[in-house]
Amino acid sequence: PQMTMTIDAAPSGWGSTLEKELEMIAMAHGTWNKRQVKLSSNIREIKAITQGLRSFSKTLKNLRIQSLAIKSDNSTAVFDIRKWRASISLIKEIKQVHYTLEKLGIQIQITHLPGVRNEIADELS
């Protein structure tokens, strides 16, 4: 992959970083609305991936990025996105991730990043 995006979702919001060759390119974060706060941690994590991709879309397009590593500390979200297997509520969110990637023309490699090593995105969320 040409770049790496790390993601973290907390009960109050989400955070994401974009790195190229271990150099920080951009950071983004946001808060959840009243409805989103009540969602499961898995749904919030998948929503955070979509939010991160949307936040960095201009940068990804300008740099002509075609492959992106995504790292999340939520192993369920990683597995579900990789395998396209999940509950009905999660499938809707996974489709959003894939739709956003398709619009950007990006292939991904998604992996689990233990929370201890996901410090910056964790701080932003």
TrEMBL record:
Entries under InterPro entries matching the protein: Hepadnavirus_pol/RT, RNaseH_sf
GO MF, one annotated term: nucleic acid binding
Signal peptide (residue range): none
Superkingdom of this protein's organism: Eukaryota
UniProt protein name: Uncharacterized protein
